Amino acid sequence: MAEFIIEATITGPQASIGEFRSQFLGSFPVIKKDSSEEIIVALSGGDQDPRPTLLNLSGEFPALTFSIVEYTADLGREQVSHRWIAQDGEAHSGL
């Protein structure tokens, strides 16, 4: 599997964002933004695919929306390969 980058923007009610932050934010390697309105994290995939983890987290926090952008690491952010939304444990096509 080629290495790719995933950027996830997590939005929802402040109470749910706060609960997510206290339980899971420390497990993400790169935190690009952390505010009461949204959290933006970046993950890389290669040997271990982080997408199932994001789906599971969306199931644990059904009030939150995970807007995901994927791109290959060698092409960079300007070459988005896939967009999707994880909500309530399900994946949906994005933007």
Question: Number of DSSP strands?
Answer: 6
Q: What order do the strands of the largest sheet run in, or round the barrel if closed?
A: 2-3-1-4-5-6
Which class do the helix and strand fractions yield?
A: alpha+beta
Give the percentage of residues in beta strands.
Answer: 35-45%
H/I helix tally: 2
Span between N and C termini?
A: 25 Å
List unreliable stretches of 5+ residues. none
Q: What is the general shape?
A: globular
Mean pLDDT: 87
Rg result: 13 Å
Secondary-structure element order, as H and E?
Answer: EHEEHEEE
Helix content: 10-25%
Largest sheet: 6 strands, antiparallel
Keywords:
6-stranded antiparallel β-sheet, 2 helices, 6 strands, alpha+beta, about 100 residues, globular
